[in-house]
Each structure stands twice: as structure tokens, then as C-alpha cells.
Amino acid sequence: MLNKFLKRTPLVLLALNFIACSFMTPKSVPSAADIEREEQAIYAFFAGDGPVLIMQETNTNISKDDPEQSIEYIKSGLKNISQETLDSYLDRNAQPTLLSPDMELGTEYTLVTADDLYEITSQPNWGELLSEKYQGTHGYIIFSRVGFNSTLDQAVVYVGSVAGPLMGAGFYYLMEKKNGDWVIKEQVNVWIS
Description:
By secondary structure, the chain is of the alpha+beta class. It has one domain (31-192). The chain is 39% helix and 25% strand. The protein contains 6 helices and 7 strands; from the N terminus they run ααβααβααβββββ. It has helices spanning 2-24, 32-47, 67-77, 83-92, 114-121, 126-133, and strands at residues 52-55, 109-112, 140-143, 147-148, 154-164, 167-178, 181-192. Strands 3, 4, 5, 6 and 7 form a 5-stranded antiparallel β-sheet that branches. It is globular, with a radius of gyration of 23 Å. It starts with a helix and ends with a strand.
């Protein structure tokens, strides 16, 4: 009996050591390069086939007057968003960011500043003027930064799409990575014109 116990003891100790180490090992944190690559993959998902015009400065469409109400609206519309993903989104969007002209979106795109866009959209025939200045484009897209969970398989992003005067909409999208591709899991409309 003692002999059986002594034979099993190393196996039990090895198993306990493995279990303890797996709980004590810190979660791997995705690298900045991994996050950047996944963010660009999500932008590419919405950019589609080019050429596309993208607002250079990010925007979350979260109310500055009552940000908590906007955050509650996101949570109520995206029922499966994890707190980790939402926290990442809020952290990465604490300040507007200028998107890089070197993004790999798999399509031709042009970044446009808010000032350049305002100069055109303040005109009554701005849809035509925009198409003339940026040939081949049909309106413009507004992106937020993308918030991720730590395993980079859940993400949230704000996307505004304006095709012309009184032709646009903005959504928060909860994305999920399935078989290596990002897909929309849930969406909630923020505005429409």
C-alpha cells in the first residue's frame, strides 16, 4: 500500500504543480503591433473596395455633455460586450487620434482633415464637390479607435458613414473574430440622416 502511494505521489505533485503554475502565470498581453494589425483588419472590413475617403481624426460619437449616458447606450445595444472590451475602447479613445496614412486596408484610401471636409460640406452641393475633389469616392467614413479584449477575438468600434447630404448613419459594432476573420456580432444605431 505504501509502495503504491509513493509511486503516485510524484504524479500528483506534478499535476498540482502544473495547475498552480497555470493559475499563477500572468495572462499574455497582446503587443502593440498585434493590436494595430487587428485594428486595421477591422477598418478594412468597413472600408470595402476603394477608393474610400476616411476622416483622419478619430471620433467616438460619445456625448461630451453626458458620456455616461452614451456608455450605457452602448452597453444596452451591444448585449454581449465584455467589460474588458468596453474599457479598452474607452481607454483607446480618451483623446481623438490621427489615423496613419500607412494603414494596410487592402484598398485605396485617402485621409481627409475635418477642416478640408468642412470646407466642402458647408456648400449646398457638397456631395458633387466631394466626388469631384476625391474622384471615385462616395462620401466618407469616420472611425473610432478599436477596443479589444485581451485575446483579440472581441472588438468594438464606432463607424460613421456619410454618402451625401442627408444620407448617412453611425453605428457601434461589436465584432467577433471567427476562423481568422472579423464579423459583426451586434450593432446599435447612434444616428441616421
